[in-house]
Amino acid sequence: MGNSLQSASITELNDTPEIPKKIGVRFPLILLNLVIYLFAFALAYLIKKQAIVYDQNYASYLLIYISAWAVGGLFSGKFRFRTYMSFGACLSKCYISLLFSLGIVAFYLSETASLSISRLFVVGSLFLAFTIEVGYYSLKSRRTISKSVRRKRNISYITIILDLILLTWVLFFMYDKKIDYTNFNENQAILLAGTFISWLLAGAITHQFEVYSKDTNIWNAISVQLKFYLLFIALMSFIVYILQINDYYRMIYLTAIIIFSAWSFILMFFLYIHKLPEKTDDVTTDFLHAFEIKVPELKRNRGTEYSGKYSVNTYKTERHTVSERLENIYLKKSPAIFSFLAKNLNLDSFELEKVSVLSSRDPSNITVFPPEYLELFFNLHALNDLRRINEYFIDVNERLRDGGIYAGNFEPIRYRYERFRNKYPFILANTFYLFDFLWKRAAPKLPFIKKIYFAITNGTDRALSLAEGLGRLYFCGFEILDLRVIDSKCFFIAKKVGEPSTDQNPSFSPLIKMKRHGKNGKEIFVYKLRTMHPFSEYLQEFVYTYNNLDEGGKFRDDFRITKWGAFLRKHWLDELPMIVNFLKRDLKLVGVRPLSRQYLSLYDTEFAQRRMKYKPGLIPPYYADMPKTINEIMASEKKYLDEYDKHKFRTDVKYFFKSVNNIVFKKERSK
Description:
The strands form three sheets. The chain has a five-stranded mixed beta sheet, with helices on both faces. It has a three-stranded mixed beta sheet with strand order 1-7-8. α12 (389-399) links the parallel β3 and β4 (400-410). The protein is built from 24 helices and ten strands. It has three domains: 27-275, no CATH class; 321-412 and 464-496, Rossmann fold; 511-665, no CATH class. It is elongated and about 115 Å long. By secondary structure, the protein is an alpha/beta fold.
């Protein structure tokens, strides 16, 4: 399914030299390195004992020595040398391995009283092994290892300062609460200085304080953090071992270092998430800002209306090549999808070389085509796996000719819930779906949390509402020709009718403001609680065309309204923020409803001009009369204005108490 009807060749844009592939663990290298360490151990032992004699303590220590060598080699990556690696990189891996090994040995010997090993022997044997292997790589570098290429590293000084403050605070707390300052001696001073030196050395070795690049993913960042803390703890274990700090102070100090590492990891994780690029076309939530819901102004070139199947060209191809390939090759196992296309499109009117069918989430599969080239583009891969859906739609729009067709699919949340219900028992299904909704629907909309979500998931398997999926298409210059649900996915056929919108990214803010006509045509912003899915404002024409108006002058079966939005509307709660407009004196307590330009265009021209002479109200006549149709709404407002012209105060009091009676006592509800 990943092939296109057109075979396109991708031209290389530059002559970037090929980077050698990463070489895995090399067992001959491990064996050679083990021999070096065993030789160093034997040589140090011979120097220590001045003879070849058996010592049970040193024989037991040999197992610890080899284990420390293995762990240090794995953490440093010493067993994964590449032939193109510089001598500096080799040296770096060797001394990182040495420091890890020293820390592991020191930690074990400090916690085990059964072994009595000379500290000079411990340090000397490991440093001797380090010297031998460095000498080996120095000789080898003359033949196979390339010269070092220095890379400019950007240091985050804010990160260094914050981490240093955190370390200082933990150490101060430790001395203040656990260690009496009267016990501060020469060893304590050396230990304290060694702590800051070890912290700085570990950070320099692991590049802990470098600025994250755009290509750094969350797992690489976590890997750097863990290496830094483990190396820091290893160095501190070695210093504690060398200074022979007693058990009580040793445990307090190492516990403090572990506590610092945990808090520092949390701090660095938040800094990493904060520095992630903001570039995402997913909607954002700003709880402290009322986002303006604008009337979409899209330049559309609809061309001539059509009935029946849509044709992109006025002529027909001589052979039914496109139709045959779709039916017999690309959609052979999906006859329902082919039937959906064939029902709405005259496939014979598309040129073969200007048709592309694929199944991929890779944006490069569409960007390889020149602008305004394709007549039909069909991606069978669900949009839920795309991180930047709008950018993808815009790329498709640019590659399609005017009137070109884009077909695709996505899984709306309503069918996502059904998938859980069909797979699990009722209680489990609802529990799993709740967590799925919070993580894959709510998390991408929340400040900061969305960065964590995209860092971990890269936007795959995102939960999309039907309104958001279709609204994004209209936002990006498409018009829906038809929809069909196939295998719990919404398949769409969209026609390019214009350029993408230049509006700012729509918001999912709970508080919104909408431009309305006030008294004498003055534009005012009316505040409300949002009750619709993101991008719903771009579907007004679509919903009106297919659903028309229901009782009360609202859209019938409006799928754009969320479940909690329906609850807010039903209990009139979505209009509570309009009290702000009342306090700002944009609205009076009782009056005609403030209307948008589109809705006002449905009114009689004469009456529309008349009602604009009055200040709109917080409580409209609608609540008193509860009209069912647009004509009844106009009649209700005419009746109110006629009475208001005669007796202003009495009319408002009458309509106020009548509205309260309908809402509170008669339980009248909005839709």
